[in-house]
Amino acid sequence: MAYVTTVPSRGTDPAAPTGVLVLAGTPIGDTSDAPPRLAAELVAADVVAAEDTRRLRRLTQALDVQTTGRVVSYFEGNESARTPELVEALAGGARVLLVTDAGMPSVSDPGYRLVAAAVERDIKVTAVPGPSAVLTALALSGLPVDRFCFEGFLPRKAGERLGRLREVADERRTLVYFEAPHRLDDTLAAMAEVFGADRRAAVCRELTKTYEEVKRGGLGELAVWAADGVRGEITVVVEGAPERAPVTDPGELVRRVLVREEAGERRKEAIAAVAIEAGVPKREVFDAVVAAKNAARTSPRDGKGLS
Q: What spatial distance separates the first Cα and last Cα of the chain, rounded to whole Å?
């Protein structure tokens, strides 16, 4: 069944001396989820830049439409080289449609460079909204969705992956990741090591497809499950870090300031950093330091402490 939604005809808008870049959201699994505007944009575009031209062909067949403009490949390997060519087409008045394999271009997919270049040239950029693996996984996860961070793909190397995870170990917001199926077990094991084996998570597999599955549990449990092998496209949703109780013991606050000073930080910066990590006002840390300094003056011991 062909869609009849229309888009502005090419080159008929006198107020638009340049072309338009259209980011096309495509189905993440089920082709019937395609937005009606997508078919119309595929027909109207002067240039269709596709991450995979073969998948584009299957998409147009499923939507019962034919592209009338020029089709070019636009993927990670040629994104830098092809961007200037597409920008020049846009500057000349072309309507350029960017289509990636699934989801929204530029979100863990090719597109950012082209969008940035078009914005730099003051070229209009718009989008055809479509299904999102990130939002779908969040909604299905059973985890808090009022605040979240999208982290994309983690590094492939184990050390770099652990480093990236440690950067967000204390992040309170729900975290969303994409991952390749053959790396899922290692990634979940690394998450269990950094975040804790009991941190809740959901592995969303083959979203909107026939064999859609959402596996929920602690990270340690999920890592064991994934060790047997998992197939399909994967989105991982991880619960944010629990709120830490504030550190109110003056002695502990002073100890933390001393550690930072011994590492080379100035006292002012050390107090500010300790206040943030302990969850208390800077004044409270400052007062503890002053009290410890005064106490050290009246009863000096081994020479170690605040001066």
A: 80
pLDDT tens digit string along 109-126? 899 999 999 999 999 999
Band (6; pLDDT cuts 50, 70, 90): low
> Using DSSP, how many helices (H) and how many strands (E) does the chain show?
11, 10
Token pair 């053959």: residue: 182
Q: Tell me how far apart the alpha carbons of residues 258 and 263 are, in angstroms, rounded to a whole number.
A: 9
Q: Which domain holds residue 154?
A: 134-238
- Main-chain dihedrals φ then ψ at residue 28, nearest 5 degrees: -90, 0
Integer Cα distance of 307 and 305 in angstroms = 7
Per the domain annotation, does 45 fall within a domain?
Answer: yes
Helix axes 282-298, 267-278, angle to 10 degrees: 120
- CATH code for the domain of 174: 3.30.950.10
What is each CA distance from 263 to 147, 247, 249, 260, 267, in whole angstroms?
A: 35, 21, 22, 5, 11
**Tokens 């979100």 correspond to what residue?**
107
Q: At residue 220, what are phi and psi to the nearest 5 degrees?
A: -65, -45
